[in-house]
Amino acid sequence: MEQSAGSTVRDDAAERARSLLSVDPLLAGAYVLAHLAYFSTLTNAIVPGLDRLALLLMTLAIAGGVARALWLGEWLAALLAIAAIGFVAAQLAIFAQLSDRPINWNAGLPYLSLAGFVLFVNAWKQRTAMLALLIGAAFAYCAIYVALAGMVAASGVLGGALVLAGDDRGPRLVLANGYAALALFAALVRCRRGAVDWRWLALLIAVLAAFALAQSRAFSAVAALVAVLYLLGLTGGIMRWLLAIAFTVAIGGILFGAAIPTWNPFDVIAIDLSGAARANGYGALQPLLANHPLTGIGLPTDRAAFDAFVGRPFVYWEDLGPFGIWAAFGAIGLIAYLFIAYRCILAEPDEGRFSQILSLAALTIALYSVISPALWSGSASIVANLVLACWLTQRRSRIERQ
């Protein structure tokens, strides 16, 4: 009897191992690692040129995911992913036409992460293992970030990495917000739910150190708000609706400037260089968006082309949240962006620990997306990918039950 039970356990473990080594989890895992390697901006500091290899791997993984979705009969996920890829191509063509420049298709590769959800839909049966991999990668990223950010704080430079400077905060590395949020809430949920474990406390301290070294004031404030609400047990039900209302008011105030040329909500925070840069960018894109409200101005072929078209230096649509999304992706992009943001805010978790972590990270990134489109085009797109995959699989399950 004991031998039979032991054999059954071994067989189950072998079956789980075989399932994790199947095509779909491998593609999803490759996508996660490539996505982190690219959007962390640290890869060039470790191995120069690795970011290009990561971008190529991410693109190939998405292409494989679309092909697998068609093979598996995941028609809605496949069609949405193909539509996302086509949409990116269309926005590249729009900018090329408006600026009278040739299309640079390579400029659209970082935005193909919009279609990354298809990989998670394909491998959803192994979602626990995928989330474990993702959170493990997030912790590893935070540890590497702390080490490299310490070097930047000491020397002011770090070859190959994206170092911000130019204001009173001094030189600092860009923080991959999506992975930082996942690591923060993974450690926080584990410390709250389980017995005191110094290993998890050490991980939490490492993540908090990453937040401190990043000096990302707005993101840290939003993450702290969600963390406090979680510790108080106030991240469900009516609170999520109240946060959704606050989110709606905030983005309404930002989008209002598309109709009123004299309105610039970022003037309120133009007391430092970061706020002034956002106010400058908002003012520069207002007339362009007013002239092209449906299509936006599209995705630029390169930085020089964008500066020449806008007519001002140091303008970044990525700093303007939903207004920047509207400018770059048009009305359709704005609607899709808001749909994802509201899903992240309102979708409550089930009883699973990983579900709780994902829900808290998604809530944080969605609230932060008022001023940053990282949910769509940056590191936090990995969180949006998972939220969309969850929605699509839940929708399919409801249809099958009916």
UniProtKB/TrEMBL annotation:
Keyword field contains Protein biosynthesis: no
Q: Which residues cross the membrane?
A: 26-47, 53-71, 78-99, 105-124, 131-164, 170-189, 196-212, 218-234, 241-260, 323-342, 354-371, 377-393
The UniProt keyword set, sorted, is: Membrane, Transmembrane, Transmembrane helix
KW Transmembrane (keyword) present:
yes
Q: Which domain of life is it from?
A: Bacteria
Its protein name is O-antigen ligase domain-containing protein
